[in-house]
Specification:
Belongs to the short-chain dehydrogenases/reductases (SDR) family. This protein has 279 residues and is α/β, with parallel strands linked by helices. The chain contains 8 helices and 9 strands.
């Protein structure tokens, strides 16, 4: 068994780029052992290998695992590997893996003009795979009496964003965290969901655009900003008091005194999506 400097173990799904990579790197900077997954081949210096290597360079321990999250058995096998290599320890699961429907620009079309198999990516990967991973994570966390299961969700729960199925998947994640918290009560395990703002990731920066969906790219959150917020929550001994909640990363960052890499405090999009309370 290889351990990190702080002894804590995380799994971040879909971590070859963007939000997943940013979360994994932030955990690595905090000394965690971080398992990272993607569908791509491992061992050929691909994107996931580079994520794992950078985690290790930052003082953590990165472990890249090829996993197709559309296959339940591959998810089960992934957790069996973590259990074996880490003596049953898992402190954090971040459900981030996501698959866009055929042709990302297809989001511009109304639902009746889109193929039915959009369901397989947006619900099959975007919701079912997270449920399967959460089941397997709970099997490791509950006996130890601690752990955090976190879902990367979206303001698409609150207002229309991208497509009907996109909103359905994100609303499902928030409800999943809320209801899992009910059944996890008293176990010490925490279930959370996160609403991120616009993310200034590799794809956005390469596009040359200045705004997206009405939000300024210059004011967007970086993937590592999201990672710092989740790391702070996972390290917080009082995190279980939040179990079942949906948290806005920009607002939670203020609570923990976290700013983005440029020193700015990203703004919450709560008011832009109607305001009001969350789950």
């Amino acid at each position: 068994m290889t351990t990190s400097t702080n002894g804590k173990v995380a799994l971040v799904t879909g971590a070859s780029r963007s939000v997943g990579k940013g979360i994994a790197l932030a955990l690595g900077s905090d000394g965690w052992t971080v398992y990272v997954t993607a569908r791509g081949t491992v061992g050929a210096d691909g994107p996931l290998d580079r994520t794992a290597a950078e985690i290790t360079e930052r003082g953590g321990h990165g472990i890249a695992v090829q996993c197709d999250h559309a296959d339940d058995q591959q998810i089960v096998d992934l957790f069996a590997r973590i259990a074996e290599e880490q003596s049953g320890r898992l402190d954090l699961l971040v459900n981030n893996v996501w698959a866009n429907p055929a042709g990302y620009a297809g989001f511009a079309d109304p639902f009746w003009k889109r193929p039915i198999d959009d369901w397989d990516s947006l619900i099959g990967i975007g919701l079912r795979a997270h449920y399967v991973a959460s089941v397997e994570a709970a099997k490791l966390m509950v006996p130890r009496g601690s752990g955090v299961i976190g879902n990367i969700s979206s303001f698409g729960t609150r207002g229309y964003l991208h497509s009907v199925l996109y909103g359905m998947s994100k609303a499902g994640l928030d409800k999943m965290a809320a209801d899992m918290a009910v059944e996890l009560k008293g176990t010490g395990v925490t279930a959370l969901s996160f609403w991120l703002g616009l993310i200034r990731n590799e794809r956005m920066e390469a596009s040359g655009i200045e705004s997206f969906e009405g939000f300024s790219l210059a004011e967007a959150e970086t993937p590592e900003f999201v990672g710092q917020v989740i790391t702070a929550l996972a390290n917080d001994p009082e995190v279980n008091a939040r179990s079942g909640h949906t948290l806005i990363t920009a607002e939670t960052a203020v609570e923990y005194g976290i700013t983005d890499a440029n020193g700015k405090q990203p703004a919450s999009h709560r008011s832009a999506f109607g305001g009001g309370p969350l789950f």
